[in-house]
Structures are given as C-alpha cells and as structure tokens.
Amino acid sequence: SCPHCKWSSAPKRQFSSWSHLVRVIAAVFCYCPPLGMESHRVEDDQILASSMSHHGFSAQRGRLNMQVTTNDEDDVYGGGWCADSEEKEHWFQLDAHREVEYTGVITQGRHSETNDDFVSSYFVAFSNDSRDWTVLHDGYAEWLFYGNVDKDTPVKAEFSHPVVARYIRILPQSWNGSLCLRLEVLACPLPNSYPNENDVTPNDDLDYRHHNYKEMRQMMKVINEECPNITRIYNIGKSSQGLKMYAMEISDNPGEHETGEPEFRYTAGLHGNEVLGRELLLLLMQFLCKEYNDDNPRVRRLVDGVRIHLVPSLNPDGYELAYEMGSEMGNWALGHWTEEGYDIFQNFPDLNSILWGAEDRGWVPRIVPNHHIPIPENFLNGSVAPETKAIIAWMERTPFVLGANLQGGEKIVTYPFDMQRPPRTADESMFRWLAMTYAHSHLTLTETYRSSCHTDDITGGQGIINHASWKPVVGSMNDFSYLHTNCFEISIFLGCDKFPHESELAQEWENNREALLAFIEQVHRGIKGVVRDTENNIIANATISVEGIRHDVKTASTGDYWRLLNPGEYRVTARAEGYSPQTRLCMVGYEAGATSCSFTLTKSNWARIRQIMAQSGRKPRVKLKV
Ligand SMILES: *[C@@H]1O[C@H](CO)[C@@H](O)[C@H](O)[C@H]1NC(C)=O
Ligand SMILES: *[C@@H]1O[C@H](CO)[C@@H](O)[C@H](O)[C@H]1NC(C)=O
Ligand SMILES: *[C@@H]1O[C@H](CO)[C@@H](O)[C@H](O)[C@H]1NC(C)=O
Ligand SMILES: *[C@@H]1O[C@H](CO)[C@@H](O)[C@H](O)[C@H]1NC(C)=O
Ligand SMILES: *[C@@H]1O[C@H](CO)[C@@H](O)[C@H](O)[C@H]1NC(C)=O
C-alpha cells in the first residue's frame, strides 16, 4: 500500500456536516491522481517523443482529450501525437522533473473525424536519467499492456506495484491505422519529497470532493441547516429524467426581492461532463455560509447587498452519466448533452437574427426594441429541452442583473455576442471589463505561456475573448439573456480538464475563490434607482436608456432598475407609457457601489396621450417571421 497517496479511488462517503467531515480512506488499492497531461500542469517541455508524422502531431499534442479545433486534417493543431511511420523505434516520454511513484497510465487514440488511429498494445519503461531504461516486467517477461480498441474511449492500465522513477516511456508495439496516441499518467509524489508549487494546503476547511446528485442535495441541506437565516433551497425545474435543478439562494432576506438589491446568478453543469463549476459553486455556498457566520466583513457586505442564486447543475442527467464513468475515464463528450440530446448552452431562441434583421431595416428601436425582444411564438413548440424551458422561465421571473455560467474544456472567459456577426454588443466595453475581472482575479487563467488548451493562446494574453470570434454559436444562453432580459451573462471556461481528479479540487478552489467573489461584486458597478410617479407609486416595466448605448433595460415589477456601466458621465432617460420621459445626468465613479439615479415621471396630459396613440395607430403593424 502507499499511505502517502492522497486519495483512494473510492473514499467512503460519510459525513454528518461538512465542517465535521470524517474522511475514511479505503486504502485497499491505491491509485495515484493524474500528473496533469490533460490539465496542462505537465508543461510542454516535459513531453518528448521519438518522432512525429508532421508538425501538427508533435509530442505536445499527446495529452488526454486533446481536440482538433477544425476538421482540417492538416491542421497545425492535430488530435494527438502521431509517430513518423519511417522510423523503426517508437516511444513517448514524460519527465516528471523529479522522482515520483508511477502507478498507471491512461491511453486514448487520436481525435479525428475520419481516421481510426490508436495504439492497441505497448510496453512501459522507466528511467532516472533518460539513458538507462528498465522495461516493466510482469514477473516472467516484459509486460505487454493492451491499449485502445477505438480512438476516443480512454483505457486505464494499472501497474501491479508503484514504480519509483523520474521518466516514464510508452513503447507502442501495435496500432490501428497510424501510430497516434493521447495519454495521461498517474503518479504520486514520493513520501518524503519536499513540497512543490502544486501541493496545496487549502486555507478554507471545506468539502473538497465530487458530489453526485444525492450528495449534492445532502450538502445543500447541510449548508441550509448551518445558515438558515441567509439561505434558501429551491429548484428551477426538472430534467427530462425527473432530477431537480436545485438552486441555493444566499441573501440577507432569502425568498424575497428587496427593492434596490440586485440579483446575481452563477450556474454550472449545463454540459453534464464539465463538473468543476458544480463543485466550485458547492464550495462557494459553504464558504459564504461559514464566513458570514464568522463575521467576515466582505462576505457580510456581499450577502447583505446582493441576492445571490447558485445553481450547480443545469444538466443533472448528463452529470450522472459522466460521474459513473469517473474522472478521466469518460471520453470528451460523455454527459455533454441532456438525456434527450440537447446542448443546453445553444438551445435558446435566436433573438440575434430578429434584432439584426430589424436593425438592417432601420426598425430599431422605433418598431423593434433593442432589448427585451419577445420569444418567437413557435419557439417553445419546437426542439427545446425541458431544462432550457425551465431556465428561460427562471430568467423571466427573476430580475437578474449579472450572471455567469461555469463551463470547462478550455481556460478562457468569453463574452457575447456568441453568434457571429461583425457588430459587437452595445455594451462591449462593459462586457470586456466583466470578463477581465474574472480572468485577472483568477490565479492562473492569464498564465498564457501555458497557451490555450487545444491551440496557442488566442486571447492576446488577456484570458478573455468575444465568444463569436472564438466559437460562433446560434441560440446561446448568453445572447438570449442579453437580448431578452436585463441580465448580462458571460461564460467562464475553468480549465482544460473537464472532470478534474478530486485531488485537484482544493487547488481549483484557491485558483477561483477571489475571482468568484470579485465577479459578484461587479453587480454594483454602474447606476441603479427606482422609477416612480409624482404620487410616489412605483412604475414597473419602465424603460431606461443611456445615450450612446443602444441597449435599454427595464424596471422590475418593484420599480427598481440596475444599469451596468463603466465609470463615466451618462445622460439617462426613463420612459413609461402614459408618462413624459425624464432625462438626468448620472455619474459613475471608480469607487465601489452603484450610483443612485432615480426618476419621478409626470403623467402626460390627455392630448399628448391621444397624439401618441394616433401616431402608433398609423404605424404599420409588423409581423416578424422567424
Ligand atoms: C530511480 O532511483 C530510485 C532511488 O532514488 C530507485 O529506487 C529506483 O528504482 C530508480 N528507478 C529506476 C527506473 O532506475
Ligand atoms: C482500424 O483502422 C482501419 C483503417 O486503417 C479502419 O477501417 C478500422 O475501422 C479500424 N478499426 C477499428 C476497430 O476502429
Ligand atoms: C437567525 O436570526 C435570528 C434572529 O435574528 C437569530 O436569533 C439567530 O441567532 C440567527 N441564527 C443564525 C444561525 O445565525
Ligand atoms: C404551440 O402549441 C400550443 C399548444 O401547446 C398551440 O396552442 C399553438 O398553436 C402552437 N403554436 C404553433 C405555432 O404551432
Ligand atoms: C412593457 O412595456 C412595453 C413597451 O415598452 C410593452 O410593449 C409591454 O407590453 C409591457 N409589458 C408589461 C408586462 O407591461
């Protein structure tokens, strides 16, 4: 056995409350965690191979789950390491940079639409100096491992005992198609090795584990019991398999919208196999609860000043699939879609085409508004997942101001539009600021020397990119949120490894904690206020326009509004049917906190109303076809 291994494959899941967590390690068989081929913790210069078929298939492409980014087979970013077929001897080598205990490898074939290239058998060799190599024996002969049977499914090989060495080599013996390989290596640090930068001792006493559906529900219950005054569990709907999409509300007055208090949301797991966001949100709940009870002033300010909604799992069916297969062992796609095959992120109504079509005809904003664009009548009768419908209803009934969805498989923050078309949103600079806030508060997201997960760095060192110029999609959640509601939403891609090993969770919490908090705090950037009439009645559904920004927001049913804006001076106009518009000059400073900018509208006189009605009566009625 190897007592220094941090985690066994199946820790017994017993706990009464996370703060009194008892971790029972069932050390029957000890597997080491991944060394970090997939996560990119292993750096490019640690990987070497005997040859490559050509430039796009270098050893550095041989990371587990590496993806080709286009269907171009001559892509410079190939779907794996491929050897030069002219060579006779083939090896793929990893240098751990220090002696470690190797316990196994996980192999996968080449990612490709057309080719079926994978290694079907191989030897494994070890060395301390990269000159003298010892091939692993099974007691009788050199141990031949059976590898892959298709190009996508990862296959794990476990050694009978841990092997101490600095270097490991895979020696392919037979393959299908061309010799191509993607790989992860399982290894532990030696018991007495000095700690390196990757070994973290977490600062926060939280539950750093993966949680399946039942465990997630249990965890949320425990948090709710620890912090009954500031938390409330609800669900936003059900998956097609009947699993609930649970939400945790964290606020000083859970269950109600307080006038003037903005609403914020984090969602995760809309692709069920991108699981880090789910755990980060569970950790964030624990953290906020604990720190609130400990009187942490920053957390008190957050909880008292924002109504925070955290939804760890928008696609619970997909998660359960990925979870059953476990970390590293699902392929790139298992659990990505809903049970019925929908990709939730791009299952929303395409309002972009409606807006852009109307803009081209000069109809915006006179005939077609530049915001709160209605959902086309036939949309909900079409191919829409029940999960998507639930999310839409939730977005419509809650006056969210700001949100982010946590995804995986890349290390990047993206902002809308997500659908391709040259003009950017009217709020480009605000969106860039929001994305930047997360990326630059994250401990490693802007370490661009590590490059992006599947290509060279595409963000100019900033860690952020407009989604459409990276991966254009139609009907995205973020575009829908911006065009149908007041809420600005961005996507945060948390890392290359969609399903990080449990032992990575503490480090990932450290990496993301400040960013998660700093991003919520941005909900207070800009102006906010209440629109009332002269008798002090609130006016719901009033339109707030900012001169120079062709995107309005509306007041909530409680008459309050929030308009995210960068520092500056703005001419702001409030309009409501039956009232004369009012324009004010509102300043946004650099200090924290939204500037108060309220309006009192006077009723327009009858003649004026009649005139407006007569004008609108003469307007052509426009039916939009989508
Ligand atoms: C590497 O060195 C360690 C001692 O530091 C030794 O135990 C181990 O067997 C060596 N590994 C190989 C492959 O020679
Ligand atoms: C092996 O490769 C050939 C083409 O080289 C392909 O036709 C065949 O389907 C592959 N076998 C498997 C099991 O994928
Ligand atoms: C909840 O609020 C009540 C009344 O304000 C207070 O007495 C109680 O201590 C609070 N409970 C917790 C767990 O903070
Ligand atoms: C959509 O379905 C509803 C009933 O579910 C029906 O009343 C309506 O006519 C349908 N609309 C279209 C455009 O098919
Ligand atoms: C909100 O105002 C718009 C006009 O700005 C109007 O078309 C819409 O029907 C109103 N919605 C509600 C719920 O009052």
From TrEMBL:
The keyword Glycoprotein applies. It is found in: Secreted. CDD domains: FA58C (cd00057), Peptidase_M14NE-CP-C_like (cd11308). GO terms for cellular component: extracellular space. It comes from the Eukaryota. GO terms for molecular function: calmodulin binding; DNA-binding transcription repressor activity, RNA polymerase II-specific; metallocarboxypeptidase activity; RNA polymerase II transcription regulatory region sequence-specific DNA binding; zinc ion binding. PANTHER family: ADIPOCYTE ENHANCER-BINDING PROTEIN 1 (PTHR11532:SF48), PROTEASE M14 CARBOXYPEPTIDASE (PTHR11532). Belongs to the peptidase M14 family. This is Adipocyte enhancer-binding protein 1. It comes from Pygocentrus nattereri. The gene is AEBP1.
